[in-house]
């Protein structure tokens, strides 16, 4: 039987808890000073055996790569949760849909005992946390507020602070997910 992986949601957020503005812009993030090899970054990504992301996040990555001229950056198997099968079909990713329980076994098998990196967005991370599948949240908090946008974790959960680091402009907070919060 495949060993259960550690499942980590590693992302950046504004101080008021948004992943992106309402137009999916990450301009507020890209202008920040940070060390890509520092806390909250590549150590978690390099340790991952598989990645999971929502369709909007995937679309943003593809558009960003097209603008920068870079190739697909992730060597790991990458799963994109989407209804847009023909639109998003690509050799770089595997498309899945339905509830997490429908496709999670594929992710676990692909991770092959290594960690799973949940790239985002927030609803996907919440769905996984709601199913008890999300173990940790590692969030780099930027010195920006947006007032509105795409939320980091749009549901009620209890977490426990494990560690805090600094990466230049960011506070990097590392939490264990305890479970749903009643109410
Ligand atoms: N700050 C950061 O570090 C960071 C990290 C990650 C993402 N982001 C940004 O944050 C924003 C995230 O936005 P978001 O949370 O709205 O988007 P998301 O999770 O990336 O994508 C949402 C989309 O995923 C698909 N989806 C989700 N659950 C599904 C299911 N069960 N079955 C089938 N399809 C499903 C749906 O697309 P379809 O129905 O159209 O297929 C849905 O509209 C994006 O702009 C992204 O670029 C920022």
TrEMBL record:
Q: Which InterPro entries match?
A: DHFR-like_dom_sf, RibDG_C, Riboflavin_Biosynth_HTPR
Q: Which Pfam families match?
A: RibD_C (PF01872)
User: What Gene3D superfamilies does the annotation carry?
Assistant: Dihydrofolate Reductase, subunit A
Question: Where is the Bacterial bifunctional deaminase-reductase C-terminal domain positioned along the sequence?
Answer: 5-156
Listed transmembrane segments: none
Q: What are the BP-aspect GO terms?
A: riboflavin biosynthetic process
Q: What is this protein called in UniProt?
A: Deaminase
Q: Which organism is it from?
A: Aeromicrobium erythreum
